[in-house]
C-alpha cells in the first residue's frame, strides 16, 4: 500500500489535499485527552482549595474559642455616658 503524501488527494474522497483534510486528525484524540486531564486536575485543585478554606482555623467559631488572648481591656478612666466597653471589639458601644 502506498503511503499518502501531504500534497496528494485525501483518501476520504473530499477532493482536498491530505494536508488540509485528514493530516492532523490523528492528534485530535490526544488533544481531547489532554483537555480532559487538565479539566479534571483543575476540578481537583478547586475542591482541595475550598476544603482547605472551609476547614481552616481562621473561622469565626475558632476565633471565639481563643477570645481570652484577644480580649482588649478598657482604657483607664470611666466610660462616657451612655456607653459600655466591648472586650471582644475593643471599643465602646451604646447601652
Automatic annotation (TrEMBL):
Q: Which residues cross the membrane?
A: 35-54
UniProt biased composition (Polar residues):
58-71
Positions of the region Disordered? 58-95
Which keywords fit this entry according to its UniProt record? Membrane, Transmembrane, Transmembrane helix
Q: Which domain of life is it from?
A: Bacteria
| UniProt-listed Gene3D superfamilies | 3.10.450.50
Q: Where is the composition biased (Basic and acidic residues)?
A: 85-95
Family annotation (InterPro entries): SEC_C_motif
Coiled coil feature spans: none
Q: What is this protein called?
A: SEC-C domain-containing protein
Q: Which classification does the entry list for the species? A: Bacteria, Pseudomonadati, Bacteroidota, Cytophagia, Cytophagales
Amino acid at each position: 500500500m502506498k503511503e499518502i503524501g501531504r500534497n496528494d488527494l485525501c483518501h476520504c474522497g473530499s477532493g482536498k489535499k491530505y494536508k488540509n483534510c485528514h493530516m492532523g486528525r490523528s492528534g485530535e484524540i490526544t488533544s481531547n485527552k489532554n483537555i480532559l486531564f487538565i479539566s479534571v486536575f483543575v476540578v481537583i485543585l478547586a475542591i482541595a482549595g475550598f476544603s482547605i478554606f472551609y476547614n481552616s482555623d481562621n473561622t469565626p467559631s475558632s476565633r471565639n474559642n481563643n477570645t481570652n488572648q484577644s480580649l482588649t481591656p478598657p482604657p483607664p478612666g470611666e466610660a462616657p455616658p451612655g456607653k459600655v466597653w466591648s472586650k471582644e471589639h475593643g471599643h465602646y458601644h451604646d447601652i
